[in-house]
Amino acid sequence: MNVSARKYVILAFFLLVGIIYTIRLFYMQIVDDSWSLRAQEIAEKRVLVTPPRGIVYDRSGKKIVTNRTYYNLMMIEDEIRDLDTNAFAELIHWTPQQVKDRFREIVKGEGTYHNPHTGKTTSNYQRIRAYPFVKELTTDEMSRIAPYLENFPGFFEEITSMRSYPYANAANILGYLSEANREEIKKDKFYRPGDYIGRAGIERYYESELRGVKGVHYIVTSALNNAIEAYEGGKYDTVAVQGPALKLGVDMDLQAYGERLMNQKRGCIVAIEPASGEILSLVSSPSFDPNLFVGRRNVAENYPKLLADPDKPLFPRPLASEYPPGSIFKLIQSLVALQEGVITVNTGFPCTKSMVGCHNHPTATDIKRAVQYSCNPYYYYTMRKIIHKGRKKNFYADAEAGLNVWADYMKSFGLGYKFDTDITGLRPGLIPNSKYYDGWYGHNTWAFSTIRSISIGQGEVKLTPLQMANVAAIIANRGWYYTPHFVKSIGGRGPLQTYREKQYTKVDQVHFDPVVEGMRRVVNEAGGTARRARINDIVVCGKTGTAENPHGADHSIFIAFAPIDQPKIAIAVFIENAGFGGTWAAPIASLMIEKYLKGEISDRYKEQRILEANLLHLKKKPKKKKP
Amino acid sequence: MSRRESASRNMDWALFAVLLMFLLMGTINVYSAAFDPDHPHFFDFTQKHGKQVLWVLFSCFLGFLVFLIDASIYRKFAIPIYLFCIVLLVTVLFMPSINGARAWLGWGSMGIQPAEFAKIGTAIALSGYLSRVNVQQQNIRTVLLANFLIIGPMVLILLQPDAGTFVVFTSFLFVMYREGITYDPIILKLVNIIPGVKFKSTWVGSHFIPILFVIIFLSLVTLLMSDNTITFSFLPGLTIAGFWGVILSLFILAIGSYFLLKWMTSKRDRRRVTLIVLIGFVLCSLITVSVNYAFQGLAKHQKDRIELFLGLREDPDGEDYNRNRAMAAVGSGGLTGKGYMNASVASMESNHVPESETDFIFCPYAEEWGFAGSFVLIGLFMFMLFRIVRIAERQKSRFNRVYAYCVAMIMFYHFAINIGMNIGFAPVIGIPLPFFSYGGSSMMSFSMMMFILLKLDSQRNDVLV
Asked: CA nearest B418 in A: which residue?
């Protein structure tokens, strides 16, 4: 037996293992990528850096939404040593029980992880990680707490950025932020728990712009999850980019003035620049200070209060309340009738008061006077001519065809549907068409006499105040409009494309002049219904409206634009339960116009009267009993 | 000629160079693995890398002492040295338990692991014993006595318990195999019980140990791979089961060894070689397939138990935590690695791979130096092992030869198991990588082992046995 040859067996063993290991290492390190991915998973973490949100400016460049520094009081449980709960609670002005509850709440809030392999459920909460213990402390609060924090190891401050509203106005335009909910986080990977998301208004509509781009820092982490160093020296890191600045068409001074005028009143003001479609102001009253909704403590505290307020400050009245337009609707009827050729400028109708009531006024012998006097029977006859133009032989079919033609006209005035504009919470209003009445009364059972109240803007017709203001803008422009919108420019690039497209009505420009003349007389001539809207050196054109309200006193409506040539502002004022349009709505509109065009008010008495008026109680008037 | 001169003249400088290289590489690597930015100084002795420098220096001092002492004392005092190690192994069992094992002898943070030194003691004792046994006259008694020398310390080590070192002691079986002291007499006796059978020797008996280890190694690899699937980044969509990967590797090996042997052997032997390779491949494949199917057929809880035993599932959570992370660290190295001090997974600071400075020291090395570094490391170890075998074969003294083989096999075991652990080819049993892992006992033990070998080799002409 040759024993010494056995060294080859041993050498073969060495060689075999050496070769196998080399092959294996070649495979693991060069061929197979999965281990690199696994290594990344283990050791590299993405740290997201949330940029401050975009700043919002008004049309004159004033900052109206900006960011402010707040502090979170952070906690790392592992570093807490001998916590004196009572002393700590005293420091942060909580009760000791609240402090204990907060610990439990944090642990609970992190949720649990169920391992499908072992069936074990473990908490996601980690003792070594930092969690915000008290969120959103102001600089004042923090500077009070900070000096004592060294007595409480494991607690430290962290800076965070939050919204701030230098003007306590325009809450209904700007909206507010709150923490993204679970569904939003699921739907959009941008959000992480605790991130804020725009909840209403501009903040919501322009969320994807304002939020900016999150920065990503790749870091190498240890098994305990703490950062060790930047991965590859930060080669792959991206910088957080703040959202672009938004420039709104809103005139913040005008907005603030409008809110002052509407103090102690329920209703709204919408002002539009006719030439651009930019909304100059959108007052919803009663309103609230947008700063009430900064931070989740504030939201939690104030939201339920505002929600429970019987005057509904959270309800966006200019966008979502739908009212019968009343007499302002006559302007559009005049235009449609002229376009349809059922009347001429000089057509007159007697004020018979037989089918619809009216007030006493001289006979409307032409369309200008009809507008000036707001003669109900005049529009009853006019509307009948529009509906029953003899398009069909059958009487009912004729009414159906006529109504649909009319409804198309209404649509071209932006009525009956939601504007595709940069705010949420809009309502469409209501323009009935034949389908609507068929559903209500049955096919071929209704004719003009059935639906006659729409001729004077009552009955089924409903408009939102925004649509009313837009009607004023259309007339100011003599036949066209831009979709009313807020944002003048996104990061200096101008508004969205859809707001740069002119929308034309189906009424030719020539037909507008007599209506505008009528509107001029409404304000400026004897016998006009809105003499209170007169301004000495500005020609204001307007129309009053009084919307009947089955729930209480009539609503006071006024739409106007000024000046008569090259109008700069179109406005709609709506005061709930304030009665006749000329009494309250008209003077408010005139004050707004004067403020905007001249920057100051000439008639102090007029202003004083409005500021002092309290119209909130009006709702409590005994209800009008209707049969 | 003075002894000092003869020592330097007959010194194996190649092995000495590899040893110094390992010491240097090991220290540098421990510095990277255990780097703490708060203590950046290389010689900061409060840090592990600083202590490792101390251990290396102390080991070199021990080596210097070894070179001063005449090599013949190891032979003369083989039995006392062995008994001293046994006493230490017994003593350590009465020490307080640290991390669940009574492995440490010492005070406070300073301590030694007698098990590490027991390897040297046993190697010397085995060398002493085998050098006196005549292979031609071996019988069951000599085989059992040699085995007893090994089994004694093994039992004591298992009592600590220290599974890693326990396994390392089986390396001595290969030394016995090389010396012809195998289980041949026992197996012959067993075989000859069968009436009518009268063998003088059996192939299985004389090659019992390597056959056994091939089977164990193949079974282990198959088990470890059985739950894996192998995908190829250059062949997307191709996924093969783990054990097919093993068979594929075997096939490649068979082809390779066929051509190697064909080149090495004469024309006359070619048919025999072809037959051996073919039979070897078929048998190995059969083992792989049967182990795989046996394992797959097991019930879930049985499978879990085996996996747990093998260290496939180290923690009861079933996370396979250490091995997976160690492999991720190694696998993420790429061709040239992430660069020195740039290990993101395996650094001690990040602590993703526990014990990355001791048992998993190959991780930071492979992660930082990539396949290039791993290849160099394996190459160096291969060179060292081949060099030691060459040294062993040139000894006139049988004592020296056995001792050299002991050193080679111990080194090989540590190398194979430790790196195998890091690349998913061996169960996770904590044994250090020679000269690389942090730790005083292992550093001193491996260094002394090598210095004694170098000393013995340098005096190979003095000894006449």
From this structure: A21
Residue from A1, A35, A115 to probe the interface with B (highest B Cβ count within 10 Å)? A35
pLDDT in tens, B238-256: 677 777 778 888 888 888 8
Give the nearest chain A residue to B230 (CA atoms): A32
Is the distance from CB of B443 to CB of B51 less than 8 angstroms? no
The burial class, CB within 10 Å (0-12 / 13-18 / 19+), for B38 is exposed
| Diameter of chain A measured on Cα atoms | 140
Query: Which long-range contacts (C-beta less than 8 Å, at least 24 apart) are formed by B51-57?
Result: B51/B438, B51/B440, B52/B26, B52/B27, B52/B438, B52/B443, B53/B27, B55/B439, B55/B440, B55/B443, B55/B444, B56/B23, B56/B26, B56/B27, B56/B443, B56/B447
Mean pLDDT along residues A5-9:
84
A571 phi/psi in degrees, rounded to 5: -140, 145
Region B439-464: what's the mean pLDDT? Answer: 88
The answer, yes or no, to whether residue A396 has pLDDT greater than 80, is yes
pLDDT of residue A560: 93
Q: With contact defined as beta carbons under 8 Å apart, do A210 and A246 qualify?
A: yes
Query: In this complex, do B331 and A21 lie within 8 Å of one another by their Cβ atoms?
Result: no
| Res. B4 pLDDT band, cuts 50 70 90 | low
Give the DSSP H or E segment for A475. Answer: helix A465-477
Q: What is the mean pLDDT of chain A?
A: 85
Asked if B331 lies within 8 A of A228 by C-beta distance, the reply is no
Taking an 8 Å cut-off on Cβ atoms, the answer to whether B335 and A35 are in contact is no
* Nearest Cα residue to B188 out of B203, B205, B171: B205
| Cα–Cα nearest to A156, from A242, A61, A42, A80 | A80
Q: Is the pLDDT of residue B307 over 70?
A: no
Q: How far apart are CA B7 and CA B23, in angstroms?
A: 21
Q: Which residues of B touch A22 (CB under 8 A)?
A: 374-375, 378
User: What pLDDT does B154 receive?
Assistant: 93
Shortest Cα distance, chain B CAs vs residue A304, angstroms: 47
- What is the ipTM for the molecules in this complex? 0.88
| Residue A626 clears pLDDT 60, i.e. is over it | no
Per-residue confidence at A349, pLDDT binned at 50, 70, 90? confident
Q: What percent of chain A has pLDDT over 70?
A: 92
Contacts of A15 in chain B (CB under 8 A): 382
How many A-B residue pairs are in contact by the CB < 8 A criterion?
Answer: 149
- Nearest C-alpha neighbor of B184 from the set B160, B162, B200: B200
A13 contacts on B by Cβ (under 8 Å): 174, 210, 213, 412
What domains appear along chain A, each with residue ranges and CATH number?
252-620 (3.40.710.10)
**Residue of chain B whose alpha carbon sits nearest to that of A4:** B178
Give the single-character DSSP code of A174: H
Measured between beta carbons, the chain B residues lying within 8 angstroms of A228 are: 349-350
**Which of A7, A25, A36 lies closest to B332 in CB terms?**
A36
Q: Which of A254, A211, A215, A342 is nearest to A60 (CA)?
A: A254
Least confident among A310-319, B242-251, B442-451: B242-251
CA B95 to chain A, closest CA, distance in angstroms equals 32
Euclidean distance between the first and the last CA atom of chain B, given in angstroms as a whole number: 21
Distance between CA atoms of residues B197 and A129, nearest Å? 74
